[in-house]
Amino acid sequence: MAVLGAAFGLGCPLGGEVAGALLAKAGWVDFAFLTWRMWYELAGAVTVLTALGAVVGHLLDEIAAHSEQLECRVRERTKELQALTEFTEAVLHRIPSAVLVTNGQGRIVWANQSAFRLLREWHLATDGSPSLLGQSGLTLLPDLSAVWAQLASVLKDGQVRAFARLPVNTPSGRKTVRCTLAPLRRPDADEAVLIVDDITSEEQWQQQLVQSEKLAALGQLSAGIAHELRNPLSAISTATYCLTQALSEQNALSEPAQRYLTVIQRNVERAQRIITSVLAFARPSQAEAVPTDLNELVDAALDIIAKEAERRNIVIRTALTPLPLVRCRPDAIKQAVLNILLNAVQAMPDGGTLTVCTEHDAIAKQVRLIIADTGHGIPPEHLQRIFDPFFTTKPPGEGTGLGLSIARTAIEADGGRILVESEIGKGSVFTIVLPAEVPAPMHREPVGAWMAHR
Questions:
Q1: Which residues does the UniProt record annotate as the domain Histidine kinase (predicted)?
Q2: Is 229 found in the same domain as 175?
Q3: What is d(CA 210, CA 225) in angstroms, rounded to the nearest whole number?
Q4: What single string gives the DSSP state of each residue in 73-93?
């Protein structure tokens, strides 16, 4: 029995001593039953554990597979999010509006490429300047103080603020901008987006449109008044002539009477010239544009002002180089050139030098006429107005203020433009640019040959 107990104890967790004690007490049959039952229960427990292990293994496999799927989906979503972020930034960088993102303290934390470009155009930033990030918006754009003052309110109430027109003074000149300040909610911080649009050109176009409408109305009014004035002026001129003839026939034309009648006739003629100028402004020439040698028009205009220039001790220097023909209305362009030349001569009452030259830009397909004087110059505050109708700085009775306006209207009607530069005490430079049409004639002096005009 001890041997059986020992043998059983080798395979039973109860140990050999426990098995021997059970066998001695219970007998062989009971011992066998007890042994069978213990092995049966042990086998069941092993089976359960084995099944449980299989289930746990299967669950672990499923968890691992699911985890791998999740990792793949996370990687895919991360790529999609990165692509969406890159797309969003690309869109923001390519929109023409300047976009600045600021934190609650008004410091710039992000800016698109348009913002950098705009600030470079305004000379507020350069390619070699430090990054805008971290700078104070108020320090960078102090003229937008009204916008920055609303930052706290925007972050607090979440409402968008719009600013239609704000002036900004920059080293490159005065600009006009339109701004929008909007909240940008983020889980970790409250920020704001500032959108800035430079509407300087847009405002200039609007002003030009308004000016054009005013000029059109003024032209119609002037044309009507000029037409109505011509009849009484003609009557005055005719009456003056008849009175002069009648007094002469009666030998009653005294010297004072002759002087007064001459004054009347001279002022009637001046009034008629003014009316002609007003009508030329109100009703531009309808002549057909034809290929024309600009140099020939300049020569003709110089011949007209030559005597007056000589009387004022003005030296005329010319360099009219070979030019392609330009398609224009010759009489209108000749009158425009003549008006500019007369202004140049009148700007040098004590003498000076009048320089007239032409040049051809083959790349741009343009011809240029440059008229420079050494007169008193044009004040900066007048430069923007010299082409306005009836604007003049001459004393009363010495000008109508229509010469340059008529000149610009004629030049622009033929597809050209007129530019002006001036400096007080040094003189002015007017440049007429017209589109070239056909190759240049070759009968002119070589480029660079300066000649005194007679």
A1: 224-438
A2: no
A3: 22
A4: HHHHHHHHHHHHHHHHHHHHH
In terms of Cα–Cα distance, which of 305, 306, 394, 379 is closest to 342? 305
User: Which of 282, 317, 342 is the C-terminal boundary of a domain?
Assistant: 282
Report which residue type is found at 359.
E
| DSSP line for 226-268 | HHHHHHHHHHHHHHHHHHHHHHHHTT---HHHHHHHHHHHHHH
What residues pair up with 354 in beta bridges, in sequence order?
A: 316, 373
Q: Lay out the sheet containing 417-423: strands in order across.
A: 417-423, 427-435, 366-373, 352-361, 314-320, 451-452
The per-residue pLDDT for range 65-84, each reduced to its tens digit, is: 888 888 888 888 888 888 88
CB 99 within 8 A of CB 131: no
Q: Which domain holds residue 35?
A: 2-67
Cβ-defined contacts of 440-443 (< 8 Å, 24+): 440/322, 440/323, 440/324, 440/360, 441/293, 441/322, 441/323, 441/325, 442/322, 443/322
Structure letter (DSSP) for residue 112: -
Residue of 313, 307, 375, 312 lying closest to 343 (CA atoms): 375
Whole-model pTM: value is 0.45
Report how far residue 316's alpha carbon sits from residue 25's, in angstroms, rounded to the nearest whole number. Answer: 148
State the Cα–Cα distance between residues 449 and 382, nearest whole angstrom. 34
Phi/psi at 180 (5° precision): -135, 130
Cβ contact 104:155 at 8 Å: yes
Q: In the block, which residue shows the tokens 């240049």?
A: 440
The CB-side HSE value for 327 (13 A sphere, CA atoms) comes to 7
Regarding whether 433 and 326 lie in a shared domain, the answer is: yes
**Domain containing residue 384: CATH number:** 3.30.565.10
Maximum Cα interatomic distance, the chain, rounded to a whole number of Å? 185
Q: How far is CA 310 from the centre of its chain?
A: 46
Domain finish residue from 282, 310, 327: 282
Query: What pairs with residue 175 in β-bridges?
Result: 168
Question: pLDDT tens digits, residue range 394-452?
Answer: 665 556 666 777 788 888 888 899 999 988 888 999 999 999 885 645 444 544 444 44
